[in-house]
Amino acid sequence: MTTTSTAVTPELSAAAPRLGRRCLVVHDDLELRLRLAGVVRRAASTLDADSVSSSGLENLSLEQLGSYLCAMLIVEFMQRNGGADPLAAVARLHARAPRLPIFVFARHGNERSAARAIKAGAIDYWPIHSVDLGEFAAALQPLLVPVVNTSGKAKSWAQASLETSGYPEVAGYRLLKKIAHSSAATIYLARNDDLAQPVALKVQSIQGLASVSEEDRQRFARECEILSSLNHRSIADVIDFGITPDYLYLALEYFPCGSMRERLKNPLSEGDAIHYTRQIASALQVVHAAGIVHRDLKPSNLMLTTDNRVVLIDFGSARAQLVGLDLSRSDLMTGTPYYVCPEQINGKDPDQRGDLYSMGVLFYEMLAGRLPFLGNTLAEIFEGHRNGVVPVLPGSCARYQPLINRLMAKSPDERYPSASHFLAALEALTGRG
Description:
The chain has helices at residues 30-43, 54-59, 62-65, 88-96, 111-120, 133-140, 157-163, 214-229, 260-263, 270-289, 316-322, 336-339, 342-345, 352-368, 378-387, 401-407, 419-430; strands at residues 22-26, 48-52, 70-76, 102-107, 124-127, 174-181, 186-191, 199-205, 238-243, 247-253, 302-304, 310-312. It is an alpha/beta fold.
């Protein structure tokens, strides 16, 4: 039996699937299914919801599954059934219908649960009692655009979700959700049928850019090959990369726990600030040794793992050498103006000491709970980077002030010459090493 969001309980038809604006809600508790169906209607008023028990889901045919735009599984992470994997149903459904978008709504889950849900085949995850309605609506929106083919017939949910999303077409990848966006590139959650888990796919448009030469393209490929050879726990694995006439793309491992940008919305302890900064410096040490400068170090390019590690992603070097970063056009929400070094503002190509400056801004922000240079305009923010005095840390963190001052020196020559030198100074101060 199924129940809709209006509490009607029609039988699931065994006839030909009705392609409509419907989703499937799965859980054994009818009341909980109805509550989630109500949330669906609030997030997308044109989307209706059928519901089914866990056993009912197993009995649905592929034809019946194909009538739904997506499936929403409520997962109990508190073990009550003899230790069975709570995500087994997600994995089975994904194996049966790999192109059906699956959303997991968790009870008693945590960050590790989110990571496991994504690996099992879900495209998104929410704690069921704290669903952000705006985010949920945005996640559903690409699935709701009606599409017909040239014969006037509706396409399947798999075709519609892929072709009507407005996302670029990257051969071999299905783009599922937009994760982040800046003036330079967009990062999507994506799947490749040859890969066991989803990836973060960074896509940058180069369509119509005559300045991108064949030599530039070869340089991008060489640097991606170098990045893919790096093996460090604080550097994201590069899984794939490519160049088309219209796009550059870079596939990186996906981190469902979010970025440092979200983490900084809440105060950090001194211990966490040191822990994260040490990892960032270690990652830069490896990247710089490979001859690569990041050039865009900021919180949204630092991902968090389930064991509280920070991982460096979105290497700006290859991008910056193909398409120059025009800071005058930067969106303040991307974070770049707040972390950029003075020489980059002045139009010079920064070396590894530019990354150390950006790390200094991050280090200050983590310790002080605020950015060192703010302003109502880009010009005001840039003036702080060029000529502003580095602000003083709170008294409880005052012993780190000399490190911050040197990292954020206006002249690269006055900064630490390398990440290794900074790490040595940090360890000497904290008694490690």
